[in-house]
Amino acid sequence: MFYYGFDWTYIIMILPAVIFSLWASSRVNGTYKRYSTQYSRKGITAEEACRKVLDENGCSDVQILRIQGNLTDHYDPKANVIRLSDSVYGSTSTAAIGVACHEAGHAIQYARNYGPIKFRAAIVNVTQIGSQLSFPLVLIGLLFSSTSLAYLGVFLFGFCVLFQLVTLPTEYDASHRAILALENSSILDSEEIEGSKKVLNAAALTYVAALSVSIMQLLRLLMIVGSRSRND
Predict the structure, then answer these.
(1) How far apart are CA 194 and CA 46, in angstroms?
(2) Domain carrying residue 166
């Protein structure tokens, strides 16, 4: 796979996944922009919708705070707080309501001990270590012909892939809970719910794309280290 010092594995394996990732990112931005102009007929804000979903699912203890940024929304399980960005918090668009209720979905997952999100939280520390050390260990191992050190780096990177693999069902489930809550609460009508659903589906694709990039990168590292091991 290597010719005259050029790594063809990057072109063959990584580039298609990166292109898919860029397309997914563009799609979510375009979809959000489109439905950010579709407003709730009831005039309910994203924060109000989020609060209603939380209260109706036994999560009234979860706080909702406003933070700066654009689509920086997230649920913080340690503080038990949902932080909604400026572009979402006070908006009455179906896009913003979908995003806010998605974060409420994550809070509900923790409240109901949803397995994948608990597992993801359990491996987050080792994943952070793996993301920082994996590539340096692989590089050092290859430079000094230490196959065991290189494979250790690959092993640590595997935790990053595992984290993203577990993240995928977690994100889809949070979106499912959000849409179900919107339907049951009559926050939005059927046409408006469709807008929220399209935004959340587009957002989910970005996680699929990120996972595909990581899987291809893991396979590429295994090929590189395996090839060097056989040559040694």
Answers:
(1) 16
(2) 2-231
**Residue 36 contacts residue 95 (beta carbons within 8 Å):** yes
Task: Give me 46's structure tokens.
Answer: 């994203």
Question: Is the predicted pLDDT of residue 2 greater than 70, yes or no?
Answer: no
Helical (H) or strand (E) element with 175: helix 147-185
- In this structure, the number of other CB atoms found within 10 A of the CB of residue 189 comes to 14
Q: Is 194 annotated in the active site?
A: no
How many domains is the chain partitioned into structurally? 1
| Residue 3 pLDDT > 50 | no
On the question of pLDDT at 4 being above 70, the answer is: no
Q: Which of 47, 103, 171, 192 is labelled catalytic? A: 103
**Percent helix, strand and coil across the chain, each to the nearest 5:** 75, 10, 20
**Terminal Cα distance for the chain, rounded:** 16
Q: Please report, as a single letter, which amino acid is at residue 74.
A: H
Token pair for 14:
């990584």
Report the alpha-carbon distance of residue 167 to residue 47 in Å, rounded.
24
Q: Tell me the backbone φ, ψ of residue 64, rounded to 5 degrees.
A: -125, 120
Give per-residue pLDDT as tens, 20-79.
Answer: 999 999 999 999 999 999 999 999 999 999 999 999 999 999 999 999 988 899 999 999
